[in-house]
Amino acid sequence: MIKGGRAMANMFEKYAADREAEQKKIEKAVVADTTADEKRTTLSLSLTVSDKKALKMMAAERETTIAAIIHEWVQEHLKEVSE
Question: Backbone phi, then psi, for 62, in 5-degree steps?
């Protein structure tokens, strides 16, 4: 039983290390995102759970924030509107 317990502990340690590394990436992206010169405001959105998960995954894959993804989308669509 001790062997199985140690294997379980190793699994949790690996998960914790992976989660910590992911958190550091997110924190780095947030710091980069907050260096913009524009004034910030808060936006509340009502999203489906699956859309929220998709946005979180996109942000994690790009090592950025959801706010940065939304900002990018707004900039792209402003160009379309002005044309």
Answer: -85, -5
More confidently predicted of 34 and 66? 66
Q: Do residues 35 and 42 lie in contact, with contact meaning Cβ atoms separated by under 8 Å?
A: no
Q: Residue 69 is encoded by which pair of tokens?
A: 């993804």
List pLDDT tens digits, range 43-70. 899 999 999 999 999 988 888 889 889 9
Burial class (CB in 10 A: 0-12, 13-18, 19+), 64: buried
CA pair distance 60, 29, nearest whole angstrom? 9
Report yes or no: 33 and 65 within 8 Å, Cβ to Cβ.
yes
C-alpha distances out from residue 44 to 23, 41, 47, 67, Å: 23, 10, 10, 11
